[in-house]
Each structure stands twice: as C-alpha cells, then as structure tokens.
Write a structure and sequence with these properties.
Layout: H1 3-10, H2 16-27, H3 29-32, H4 37-44, H5 48-57, H6 63-74, H7 82-99, H8 103-111, E1 115-118, H9 122-136, E2 142-145, H10 148-154, E3 163-167, H11 174-185, E4 189-195, H12 200-204, E5 207-211, E6 217-218, E7 224-225, H13 229-252
Parallel strand pairs: 1-2, 1-3, 3-4, 4-5
Antiparallel strand pairs: 6-7
Length: 256
C-alpha cells in the first residue's frame, strides 16, 4: 500500500495541521525522506508533535518509520521500457487487490437493495460495462446510470440501504464529487474506483479501489496512449475474491 492510499483511508480524520503536513510532503517527497522532524515542522508551519501525530494517523509508530517508508518508495526500481513499466503496473494492481480485505465491501454489497454504477467518459463506460457483465454471473444486477443529469434526478429516490459505485480516473471530477456528497448525506454506501492518488472522491467514499498511476506512452503516430487494462484486472480479481467470500459464508452456515 502506498502513502496515497494511507492518506485516503484516514483523510476524513485529518486536522488542519495534518492537511498542512500532507500538502508539503506530497510535493517534496524525496526531500522529506531525509528531513529531520524539526525541519519538517518548520517547513509545514506546524509543531513537532503535529508531524508526529500525522505519521501515527497513517499507522506508523513515529516519524522515523514514515521517513523509512518514503525512502523505500523512492528506491523502487524504475522500469526500463514501456513493456516492463506496463507489466509492473499490472503486477502492482494484482498484488494490492490480492492483499486487500474486501469482506466489509462484500457485506455491504450483499445487503444493498439496489446497486448503482456511475461514471462519464469512454474509459468509465468500459469499466461500468465490465462490472455489470462480470458481477451478473454472481447474481448482482448493477443499474448503469448513463449521465450526470440522470444521476442527479435519481438522488432523491436513492435510499440509505442502497450502494453506489462511482468511477473517476482522477477522483477530482466536479460532477462525480458533487454527486458523492449528496449521496453521502442520504446515507448511501459509496465505493470509488480511481487512480492511486490522494483525491477528493476517495475521501467521501466508504470503500476505495485503486489502479496504479501510469505514464502516457507515445505511439508511432505520435499519439499519447494510456493503458486501461489495470481496471479490468482489478474487477476480475474483485470478482474472484467475491466468489471466495460467498463460498466461505455458505460453508459457515453448513450444519456441523
């Protein structure tokens, strides 16, 4: 799990001081990996103890452990080719999803009266279609909301016992964020699918799934190409984890 995911998980509990530390750290990651806590506090205009509390909120024992975590991230081996880089992206998504405990997500999904899925754009349309296709095999029918206007009109009819999947590449799309805020007020369970970065949409959702950030690759036509395969890897692994979850539940209810 990288530091963006840790921040997204804990952002709703951040104080103003925590946000100040993260704002500086996110822009000066390599320098912070070797920076003393006193200097870090000065750079962020917060106290020494505020930096320590920030590290602890992310799950570290202290600032030294946070620095080590940052340093390890900086020392990751760089890809030597486009092919190696994209394969590394796929492997990172597989590792992250295989390690992730999705049981709370599946509990909420199974209890939901209706599951809505929303996202606008070509990539989002493909991701929605794959979610619908693959989870239909497990008996889940997702209601595909095709536009922001349709989603806005639906909000007053969406109940607190329902579940909504929101897909945004950046996690900063104003329309999706606004919809998430309105659904959150209504008590709807929310799941986001975004790139693995600190983002507003993830802060609003109960469950967050991520694909790795990828570079744009230049084609012979001098077009910029970005691989979307990570989304489909994520969905398929999520599906197989769901099948395992259902099997465990069935086995636990069998007579001894």
């Amino acid at each position: 799990m990288n530091i963006e995911e840790l921040v997204n998980q804990n952002y709703r509990h951040f104080s103003e001081s925590d946000r100040a530390v993260w704002a500086y750290l996110s822009e000066h990651r390599s320098e912070c990996a070797d920076m003393a806590i006193k200097k870090m506090a000065q750079k962020c205009c917060v106290s020494h103890s505020a930096v320590m509390r920030f590290a602890q909120k992310l799950g570290f024992h202290g600032y030294a452990e946070l620095k080590l975590y940052l340093k390890m991230g900086e020392q990751k081996v760089q890809a030597h080719s486009d092919l190696t880089q994209v394969c590394t992206l796929y492997q990172n998504v597989m590792n992250s999803m295989c390690e992730k405990n999705c049981d709370p997500l599946f509990d909420a999904l199974d209890k939901a009266g209706q599951v809505y899925i929303f996202g606008e754009g070509m990539v989002q349309a493909s991701v929605k279609k794959e979610f619908k296709r693959i989870f239909m095999a497990a008996g889940h029918m997702f209601y595909d909301v095709s536009s922001g206007l349709e989603m806005s009109n639906l909000i007053p009819m969406v109940g607190s016992d329902e579940f909504c999947i929101l897909i945004s590449v950046s996690g900063e799309n104003h329309k999706v964020v606004d919809i998430a805020k309105k659904l959150q007020i209504r008590g709807v369970t929310l799941m986001s699918v975004t790139k693995n970065r600190e983002n507003t949409l993830s802060h609003l959702c109960d469950f967050c799934l991520y694909i790795e950030e990828s570079a744009y690759f230049e084609t012979p036509m001098h077009w910029k190409y970005e691989s979307c395969t990570s989304y489909f890897i994520l969905i398929e692994i999520l599906f197989f984890k769901y099948l395992e979850y259902r099997q465990r539940k069935e086995n636990s209810h069998e007579p001894g």
